Amino acid sequence: MPARKKSVISKASPHTIKKFELIEEYIKSWAQKLMLNNSCNGLIFIDCMCNSGIYTDDAGEIVKGTAVRVSEALLEVARTYTDKTVYIYLNDKDAKRVDELEKHLPQNERNFQIVTSRLDAHELLKTIGPQLCQTGHLHYFLLYDPYDASIDWEALLPFFRNWGEVMINHMVSDPVRAITRAKRKTTKEKYENTYLEDFEKLVPFGSNKTAYEARVEEIISSLHGTRKYYVAAFPFYNMKVSHTYNHNVEFSIFRGDYRTALLCNSASSPIDTLKTDLLFQNFNLVCKCFIYP
Ligand SMILES: C[S@@+](CC[C@H](N)C(=O)[O-])C[C@H]1O[C@@H](n2cnc3c(N)ncnc32)[C@H](O)[C@@H]1O
Questions:
Q1: Cα–Cα distance, 213 to 285 (Å, whole number)
Q2: Residue identifier of the C-alpha nearest atom 6 of ligand 1
Q3: Which of these, 283, 193, 186, 201, lies nearest to 237 by C-alpha position?
Q4: DSSP 282
């Protein structure tokens, strides 16, 4: 049977659309806060796995993804703070997706530059990472958003050691479903690389998502070098609610003011874990963020 052709424009489920909204709102607050700071000359936003920029929702309507939303929001920021510069790096290893994305992006302007690429994220981050220590008064935000539980810590390391933020989509639903059934060497290695642990030691984690989350947070906390930063985690749930329970669940993931919480000025817990009776947690956004003055 011929392999099914992958569509360039993917379907986005409601929890994924909420993720787009959350990142867009977070970036608006992040940009505003930094641009008002005299020691910041500009911003760098990187989505190293950006997809095609647009999606279809459950009703078949077009929905903008993170790359397009953030580009539009940061264009406004660049037009407001004309003496500061915004750089945006959008990358995906799937060239066709980047071709589609380019149709939906705003044009570059004097102080607003978008650079697109079609590389493996590892390659992109290995190029940008070492340059970070020379960027001085530019502040970066890196979004690391794969489809599965793959985290390339080596490529991420420079981003933990410099002045900026990293948001990782830890696809916890992947090991929860698949780790006990993993047979292939490459699959086992994927989990070993993500959780920096021998596969045999990971198997007992089984479907205990808290164990995987704790491991990722532990790794992030151990990477900081001499800098101090917050590590915050925020779970996202899908909406598949079984009819047997007859639940009619509102999708309200934002309790309280998460922006204030993430861009925290105090030593209080940066993010509140969401408690809900939705059935299955798909992914967990884990952020490393600095305490802004
Ligand atoms: C979850 S989607 C990204 C969604 C996007 N960040 C957004 O919010 O709209 C994952 C994307 O990662 C890309 N991808 C997966 N592994 C990659 C890698 N190693 N390097 C570059 N792109 C990768 C896939 O082609 C896919 O388009």
A1: 10
A2: 50
A3: 283
A4: E
CA distance 185 to 162: 34
Report how far residue 65's alpha carbon sits from residue 68's, in angstroms, rounded to the nearest whole number: 6
- Assigned token pair, 226: 């001499």
Is the beta carbon of 49 within 6 A of some atom in ligand 1? yes
Give the residues across from 25 on adjacent strands: none
Return the ligand 1 atom nearest residue 55 CA: 9
* Separation between Cα atoms, residue 257 and residue 25, nearest integer Å: 11
Count Cα atoms within 13 angstroms, Cβ side, for 70: 31
For residues 22 and 38, give the distance between their C-alpha atoms in angstroms, rounded to a whole number.
26
**The two structure tokens encoding residue 118:** 């079609």
d(CA 41, CA 60): 41
Alpha-carbon Rg for the chain in angstroms: 19
Q: Would you say 235 and 225 are in contact if contact means Cβ atoms under 8 Å apart? A: no
> In the numeric block, which tokens belong to residue 69?
């939303």
DSSP summary character for residue 109: B
Nearest to 286, CA basis, from 172, 169, 163, 196: 169
Residue with tokens 């532990």: 218
Q: What is the residue with the minimal CA distance to atom 5 of ligand 1? A: 50
- Per-residue CA distances from 154 to 125, 196, 208 (Å): 9, 11, 26
Residues 116-164: tens digit of each pLDDT: 999 999 999 999 988 887 766 888 999 999 999 999 999 999 998 887 8
**280 has a pLDDT exceeding 70:** no
Task: Give the integer Cα–Cα distance in Å for 185 and 196.
Answer: 15
**What DSSP state is assigned to residue 81?**
S
pLDDT digits 0-9 by tens, 187-231: 999 999 999 999 999 999 999 989 999 999 899 888 877 777 778
